[in-house]
User: Fold this.
Amino acid sequence: MGKITDALRKAAEERMARLEKLDSKSEVRYQFIAQKTVDSKIDPRIVTFYEPSCPIAEQFRILRTNLLALNAQRPLHIITITSSINGEGKTITSINLAISMAQDLNKKQILLIDADLRRSKVNKYLGFEQEAGLSELITGRINTEDAFVSIGINNLTILSAGKPPQNPAELLGSVKFKNLLNVLKEKYDYIILDSPPVIPVTDAGLIGAQSDGVIMVIQAGRTQRGVVSHAQGLLKQAQAKLLGYILTNIQYHIPAYIYRYL
Ligand SMILES: Nc1ncnc2c1ncn2[C@@H]1O[C@H](COP(=O)(O)OP(=O)(O)OP(=O)(O)O)[C@@H](O)[C@H]1O
Ligand SMILES: [Mg+2]
Assistant:
């Protein structure tokens, strides 16, 4: 379970050691916000789109590599991203991971599903209006082909959440959702599901149980250890397999000249 965390930590430690050796004086604080270099409605925090070779995008590549390594041991095609509580960075992480996978995996088809039927944000971060999405697909109100969106990134397809339903947990716990994922699994090589937080609502457990594995995002400096273990217990109860953790809100000190050439 700790493989992804270990790899991320090791890579970060190695990078920091390298950077400290090179220059300890001319430091700039690395910002999560990427510069917008092309005219796009996509949010600047989607660094894998704007700056695929920046250090954070590299962390997403490391994560992708580790997921592939786990995939060699057992099937890992449907991955849920969640967190203990709200606002820890699930959606931004899901989008960056999906883009990184679409960019780096040769011709593998990636589907990013906004399975947060309560507070969907994938389409907002990606700058498009959602017409219909997952909730309509589960309830059978639209044809499958009308729900899938391409935002111009090769090999990446988006399925937005759709109109917020009255009964999100019921939809996500339904056989229809399970069947839909089984159909989509045949068409896409990897499916990333962005989900609501684990503690306030049951949705993530339901989504996680239909996935091959779950990754928990933890916001460093905010989410307490006890809260994380409580969420972990809830995922276990729901029969979701926890693969590992991603820490967000980590700040790097990177010398300016290195950052420019990374
Ligand atoms: N890796 C990161 N480092 C620093 N801040 C981040 C990171 N990822 C996301 N954030 C910040 O965290 C906030 C919440 O991001 P996001 O919407 O992805 O969280 P979420 O967990 O999906 O929230 P919700 O529970 O409302 O769905 C945003 O302000 C975003 O800029
Ligand atoms: Mg979110």
Summary: Residues 22-31, 256-262 have pLDDT under 50 and may be disordered.
